[in-house]
Amino acid sequence: MSTAASTTPTERPLRADARRNREKIVSAARQIVGEHGEAAQIDDVARLAGVGVGTVYRHFPNKEALMGELVRMCVVECTAIAEQCASIEDPWDAFAGMVRSSCERMAADAAMRRTWQAADDAAVAYAAPVKAELHDAAELLIRRAHESGELRPDFTVDDMGGLMCGLGAAIDAMPEPDERWRRLVEFALDGLKPH
Amino acid sequence: MSTAASTTPTERPLRADARRNREKIVSAARQIVGEHGEAAQIDDVARLAGVGVGTVYRHFPNKEALMGELVRMCVVECTAIAEQCASIEDPWDAFAGMVRSSCERMAADAAMRRTWQAADDAAVAYAAPVKAELHDAAELLIRRAHESGELRPDFTVDDMGGLMCGLGAAIDAMPEPDERWRRLVEFALDGLKPH
Amino acid sequence: MSTAASTTPTERPLRADARRNREKIVSAARQIVGEHGEAAQIDDVARLAGVGVGTVYRHFPNKEALMGELVRMCVVECTAIAEQCASIEDPWDAFAGMVRSSCERMAADAAMRRTWQAADDAAVAYAAPVKAELHDAAELLIRRAHESGELRPDFTVDDMGGLMCGLGAAIDAMPEPDERWRRLVEFALDGLKPH
Amino acid sequence: MSTAASTTPTERPLRADARRNREKIVSAARQIVGEHGEAAQIDDVARLAGVGVGTVYRHFPNKEALMGELVRMCVVECTAIAEQCASIEDPWDAFAGMVRSSCERMAADAAMRRTWQAADDAAVAYAAPVKAELHDAAELLIRRAHESGELRPDFTVDDMGGLMCGLGAAIDAMPEPDERWRRLVEFALDGLKPH
DNA sequence: TATGAATGAGTTTTCATTCAT
DNA sequence: TATGAATGAAAACTCATTCAT
């Protein structure tokens, strides 16, 4: 149980107010990206965060870096979901739980769905380190589900990206009510069982 | 019952060279959108089409209208696919054929996947009329598949948009080889069978 | 006596109005740089030229390119001066005439003095081709003056850049009246005679 | 008639650490201006000095004042050079020594050459008091050289600024090797002898 | 007091759209 | 009519200066 800050160990700790600002900026960016996708503007992020543009640029050297941080956070959240689901006893329930909870998050948070589209290669590269963790966490659940025979053996970790992107886009395209996208997720899960 | 121009009834027929220009523009736009998505620029479209920007604006009042035309063409192509598949005897094969062929098109043509993302509401609205036709064509296949008991009864035409968007995004996210996204499409189809 | 446009042979001829605008832009830039040196702003150039900023950027991809064009023009003007002086009979008078006329130009036109300071490496590189011509023209005059024994043999073409930069800076630093910098130029020329 | 602090009479003596900071800042500024000229940034100066920006602003009310201080130091150094040369017996050697040593300093220290360009009117005005001293020191050497008949009588103190600016710019423009600018300086000195 | 985070006016640059040729 | 030059509002980014810690 290390003391703290295991997420970004290389940076020296920011002053309390600076950290608060950084959080406000990221949070504002999530909202703006959720609303406007790629068309998100730094000025809007700054205004919503209640800081000057310069402050945004003090924390992130350019737009890409800010987008990259959003991608990183999405990946981190997904990883957390996967790790939580690892504690579920039944292997299939654990795997399905990861998929369902991730979709739940994407449905609740437009930024979670749209960040991927808004992010270009540089932004994605920025998140590469944490992606490895997500990969491992997902792989664990997938292996267990494979071993219990409840997940088709020809579905691999490398298919997870496509699956989640697809579900995200589907959710984004589904008009209300919730009930509809939930149904689609279940169809997808059914398709991942053997046979 | 005039035969001609049922798709765009308000326009009088264009002169041959004007039609050729229009086609060059649309074709160029597909390529540019396929490459750059939302970031596609009118100047690039004009250059690739070999015409001046002014000519683009002669055919389309603004960028949205051009994007809308791309959306319309995608919808028209999907409709054509659905109508071709209507001639397939087996109800499930007909439905699955529509899904598979559409995915094939999306895999082969980046514009087909990305147009939806690049298009805003106005562009989508522009394609509303032809969407009705696609809706009908798809509904027919879905009804037949329902009646033959090979498609889950709780999958409806209204789910088709989400399904295809999802598959498009998944294909876009899947790195090579082709074999991978094809597998994912089969998983999805499996999930649409009863049980 | 070739038809025209011998200065920029690679570019296809611009439309008459476009060329006029280009000239207005360059001319405005000279004035602005003459007044503000490195602090010159594109907006000011556009305003003075009576065109929109976009027009400036249509003719020059960025600020450096515009500065580079100014450098190029300065070099071209100097070359013209050198070539005119080549027709002067007396070798020393020809060389001294080049120096005097160039200084006259620098005194009359602040842009001529300040462009060099405002230009960074990229801008200077842009003018490299025409520099070669200036080098040759100056070399000719210097050789003749060497041969006639009126120019110290240890002054070479490679010293010309330093000499003219120095004289430009001196002129820039000399307060009125003209008579003063003229005297300094004569001192410098005296220093270039043997002994 | 207090002896101390005749250079900056209005300031009360700084605490030792404050003076050290001030010196670190000025020294850093010289280096940064030497490298970047007008484009020098306060943040870079602060970083190089190892202090916060706020500390820079505690010592200098704004950028101009800092630049002014650099100008002042240049002038002070030149004055010191002139005063040292006053002890040289031969009048011409004294005058030429001042020019040569000043050029040596400019060649060795980019800040010494570039400060003038980077400084605007306000910065120059800041150094006005010490300029008077330099004027006097130079005038003395010039008068002696005039009287001995070794310096052209039409070269006056008021030409010194132009001369040194010119030589500084020339040195700045001369590529290696040293030998080259030294030669140019000798040419200039030759030009200042009678006839 | 020293620090460096925050500020925001001011720059450069882009690009959909208009309009003279 | 087709062209592509011109437009300028809008976006990204900078940096001297202020101010909370």
Draw up the topology in text.
Four copies of one chain form a homotetramer.
Chain A: H1 16-36, H2 42-49, H3 53-59, H4 63-85, H5 91-108, H6 110-118, H7 121-126, H8 128-147, H9 157-173, H10 178-192
Chain A binds a DNA duplex (21 and 21 nucleotides) through helix 1 and helix 3.
3D architecture notes:
4 copies of one chain form a homotetramer. Chain A has 10 helices and no strands. Chain A has 2 domains: 1-61, Homeodomain-like (Arc Repressor Mutant, subunit A, Orthogonal Bundle), CATH 1.10.10.60; 63-195, Tetracycline Repressor, domain 2, CATH 1.10.357. In chain A, helix 5 (91-108) packs antiparallel against helix 8 (128-147), helix 5 runs parallel beside helix 9 and helix 5 (91-108) runs antiparallel to helix 10 (178-192). Chain A is mostly helical and 195 residues long. The model of chain A is unreliable at 1-10 (pLDDT under 50). Chain A binds chain B through residues 37-39, 117, 152, 154-155, 158-159, 161-163, 165-174, 180-181, 183-184, 187-192, 195, and chain B through 38-39, 116-117, 152, 154-155, 158-159, 161-163, 165-174, 180-181, 183-184, 187-192, 195.
Summarize the model shown.
The structure is a homotetramer of 195-residue chains. Chain A is an all-alpha fold and 195 residues long. Chain A has helices spanning 16-36, 42-49, 53-59, 63-85, 91-108, 110-118, 121-126, 128-147, 157-173, 178-192.
CATH top level assignment of the largest domain in chain A: Mainly Alpha
Coarse morphology of chain A: elongated
Major sheet description of chain A: none
Beta-strand content bin of chain A: under 5%
The number of E-state strands of chain A comes to 0
Rounded mean pLDDT score of chain A: 90
Put simply, the count of helices of chain A is: 10
